[in-house]
Structure to design on (316 residues):
């Protein structure tokens, strides 16, 4: 083999390793994750939001994953379609009637249009942009493949397995589908594409454990934590247990404000910390979202964060 080719291969290999270290280890470069894309400025989980996130220099673009009736992964935050599409108008008679435990006495059952009740072809008929602003009328719910095609080479992918237990009851294997899609796109190994690192996240410890131990993925995994009333995870010892199946935690930002030592405990366990969600519409005591993000990144010392406002990310 010519020496130039050997040097080139060695250089690419080093890039792969560096990419993995930066995205999977605490203490590296501060990482910007575009939450549902640049969702402060474009309808969440549309190609327009992903494209804008890339323009605003996101390191990663997040995709929440749902599964259609015919087994296709699509990018949508909710298990249901009515909040961000016109499904009620297009398919008025396809709702399920659900009775919530906290529903007011005598209130009618709530109508919900669940993603797995619809084929991809049906979902592609829906307008996923007008709810946000009329200028986005006609935007469609993207498949995960469409998201990969758009983002690849420009930023990292940060998929979330949404409702894996719900889909499991319907006969779908969310984790297997997710990893098979990455394998199809030659992204299933750390460093497979230096320009497109992949991190997988979930609120389900069981989902992450399945991917790590049963499906044997070596990709970085992040355990999302919204609350922890039994203190199962958010203690020094609990975070050591998280490290057995994940590379990082993604806590609600309020958890860190109440207990800043969580960052220290997580780092001591070898975990990255990526809190959520930083948005200009909800900054609490801070004057703006940039100030809030700056506090978490450079005072609390988190490694990354999820934001609706990638353009406001404070870089140093």
């Amino acid at each position: 083999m010519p020496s130039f080719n050997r040097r080139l291969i060695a250089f690419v290999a080093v890039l792969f390793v560096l990419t993995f270290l930066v995205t999977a280890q605490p203490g590296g470069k501060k990482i910007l994750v575009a939450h549902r894309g640049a969702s402060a400025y474009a309808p969440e989980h549309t190609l327009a939001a992903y494209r804008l996130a890339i323009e605003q220099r996101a390191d990663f673009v997040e995709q929440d994953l749902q599964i259609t009736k015919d087994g296709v992964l699509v990018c949508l935050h909710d298990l249901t379609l009515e909040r961000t599409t016109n499904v009620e108008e297009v398919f008025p008679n396809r709702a399920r009637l659900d009775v919530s435990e906290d529903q007011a006495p005598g209130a009618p059952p709530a109508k919900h249009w669940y993603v797995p009740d619809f084929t991809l072809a049906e979902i592609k008929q829906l307008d996923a942009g007008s709810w946000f602003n009329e200028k986005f009328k006609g935007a469609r719910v993207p498949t995960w493949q469409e998201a990969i095609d758009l983002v690849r080479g420009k930023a990292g992918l940060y998929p979330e397995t949404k409702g894996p237990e719900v889909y499991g009851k319907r006969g779908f294997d969310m984790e297997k589908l997710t990893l098979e899609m990455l394998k199809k796109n030659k992204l299933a190994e750390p460093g497979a594409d230096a320009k497109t690192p992949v991190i997988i996240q979930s609120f389900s410890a069981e989902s992450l454990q399945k991917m790590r131990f049963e499906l044997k993925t070596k990709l970085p995994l992040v355990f999302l934590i919204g609350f922890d009333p039994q203190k199962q995870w958010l203690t020094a010892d609990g975070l050591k247990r998280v490290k057995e199946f994940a590379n990082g935690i993604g806590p609600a930002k309020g958890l860190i404000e109440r207990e800043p030592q969580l960052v220290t405990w997580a780092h001591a366990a070898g975990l990255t910390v990526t809190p959520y969600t930083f948005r200009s519409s909800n900054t609490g005591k801070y004057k703006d979202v940039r100030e809030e993000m700056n506090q978490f990144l450079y005072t609390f010392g988190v490694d990354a964060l999820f934001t609706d406002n990638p353009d406001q990310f404070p870089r140093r």
